[in-house]
Amino acid sequence: EIVLTQSPGTLSLSPGERATLSCRASQSLSSNYLAWFHQKPGQAPRLLIYTASSRVTGIPDRFSGSGSGTDFTLTISRLEPEDFGVFYCQQYGSSPPTFGGGTKVEIK
Amino acid sequence: QAQLVQSGAEVKKPGASVKVSCKASGYTFVGYYVHWVRQAPGQGLEWMGCIKSNSGGTDYRQKFQGRVTMTTDTSVGTVYMELSSLRSDDTAVYFCATTEWLSAAFDIWGQGTMVTVAS
Predict the structure, then answer these.
(1) Which tens digits make up the pLDDT trace of A82-108?
(2) From A75's CA, which of A21, B23, B76, B112 has a CA 20 to 30 Å away?
(3) Cβ contact A33–B95 (<8 Å)
């Protein structure tokens, strides 16, 4: 199965700062089938980005995804208070679908 | 508004089975794939398997083969996930999520069902 490694484990930032999250796959992802999710405590994950760079309708444009092959990045251009929580990447082109271990974005 | 509604929290003893339901509200997921993902306390997300809601065809993660059964009841628009021979490390929140086709991002999620396994 494909292993996804996310870094850093924790990011301590202030509102208004830029966040850069990384997701590395153990093998190249077919059709760049890579998604990013945001999860707050007690809630289900929320889909932000699919096929590496396509933003879901209704997701603010401060969220952007990039990358291909094995290296992917989620960038949040200016952090808002509601952006804090855990971000997960997921590959869904190869069975079983797998998730990264998550990056926690916390308030500095 | 499209959403998935799951059954309530469960407390089970080791060795027992649990059955969690997932029903679409505001849309019909006939023909969709329904995936089950679990999250142990303070941990990450783990895909368990999926079922095609109309045909009942399933794909289980090898780790859960023999212990998990996913079924569909199209008459009530509900999908079920049953996990047997429960252990303490099965304590987790269990989520359902739907996709229109097999290789697609999980765009609609249920609210989650907490399953606690304790003696």
Answers:
(1) 999 999 999 999 999 999 999 999 988
(2) B112
(3) no
